[in-house]
């Protein structure tokens, strides 16, 4: 029998599980980073902010965070997903897909007309996941430049 995936809003008590699952933030910075995210997204009270978690058999197995943003560079309101993680043991069970589907519903209900994210080019796992969810290159192009000068001899 396939285990049921339960998606719910994050609660302050989920903080330690999120920190333990996060593999993108340097260890020394995790606590401060996630404290700030929880303060804004878990305690937000605004229907455009969403922090969802996934559980299987009452065990924390993943999270996804996003919000509705609008008007940057003339963009209509759209949903942005900026954090997603599923425990390695529970990947390929549909956890990420279920969380993504649920956050898309939340963001659409909050006025988003599209969904966006940014993924590091070398992160093939995450790129593959989002492409499988139907995301592709959008009409905007990300541009960046370092603000740190190269060290001189």
From TrEMBL:
InterPro entries in alphabetical order: Acyl_CoA_acyltransferase, GNAT_dom
Out of the domains of life, which is the source?
A: Bacteria
Per UniProt, the keywords (alphabetical) are: Transferase
Q: Does the keyword Membrane apply?
A: no
A GO term for molecular function = acyltransferase activity, transferring groups other than amino-acyl groups
UniProt cross-references to Gene3D superfamilies, sorted A to Z = 3.40.630.30
Q: Which residues form the N-acetyltransferase domain?
A: 5-153
Annotated Pfam families: Acetyltransf_1
CDD domains for this protein: NAT_SF (cd04301)
Against PROSITE patterns, the record matches this protein to:
GNAT
- Transferase as a keyword of this entry, yes or no, is yes
Name the record gives this protein:
Acetyltransferase
Please report the organism this UniProt entry assigns to the protein: Geobacter pickeringii
């Amino acid at each position: 029998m396939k285990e049921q995936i339960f998606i719910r809003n994050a609660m302050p008590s989920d903080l330690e599980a999120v920190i333990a699952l996060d593999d993108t933030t340097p260890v020394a910075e995790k606590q401060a980073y996630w404290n700030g995210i929880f303060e804004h997204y878990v305690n937000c009270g605004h229907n455009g902010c969403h922090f969802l978690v996934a559980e299987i058999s009452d065990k924390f197995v993943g999270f996804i965070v996003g919000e509705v943003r609008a008007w940057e560079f003339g963009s209509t309101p759209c949903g942005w997903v900026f954090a997603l993680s599923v425990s390695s043991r529970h990947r390929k069970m549909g956890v990420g897909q279920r969380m993504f589907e649920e956050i898309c519903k939340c963001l659409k209900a909050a006025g988003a007309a599209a969904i966006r994210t940014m993924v590091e080019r070398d992160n093939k796992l995450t790129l593959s996941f989002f492409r499988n969810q139907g995301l592709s290159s959008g009409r905007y192009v990300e541009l960046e430049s370092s603000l740190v000068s190269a060290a001189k001899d």
